[in-house]
Amino acid sequence: MLSIFVIAYWKEEQKIDLQQDTPLPTELNETVANKRDELISLAADKGINIVITADFRSSEEQDKLYAQGRTASGDVVTNAKGGESYHNYGLAIDFALMNLNGEVIWDMDYDGNGNAKSDWSEVVEMAKSLGFEWGGDWRSFKDYPHFQMDFGLSIEDLQNGKRP
């Protein structure tokens, strides 16, 4: 009788472990997506048109981006390999501005709405008010177009299957 209990208990433990093994996301987190949409709307209300240039990114796509400026042509644009970016977990977005001619630009001084404030800095303020962390605040490798929501989870937590 004791052996039956031990087997049943062991199987229950295995079930718990399986439930903690959360699959990788394949799209932007719902909260992040809602906040992205809210950011676009807030910016538009201020006369600022923004374009989301990246959101969810697979590990394979991340590795290709990481290779840029290293083993592939182009400038280095990230220090994160696949699985090391909040984009890989659907928790990050990148943005750019759209100028009055409809061109996508990354000009941090551009003032398209003419209020004597950089549109870029206005978008950053809006994003922070919505709960985003800005890559421009990082001490090393500043990533000015980048916003993320980590929900208190580190990359290591996410790699280990924890999800918001």
UniProtKB/TrEMBL annotation:
Transmembrane segments: none
Pfam family, one: Peptidase_M15_4
Domain Peptidase M15C: 79-149
Single Gene Ontology MF annotation: peptidase activity
InterPro entries the UniProt entry points to: DD-CPase-like, Peptidase_M15C, Zn_M74/Hedgehog-like
PANTHER family: D-ALANYL-D-ALANINE CARBOXYPEPTIDASE, PEPTIDOGLYCAN L-ALANYL-D-GLUTAMATE ENDOPEPTIDASE CWLK
Protein name: M15 family peptidase
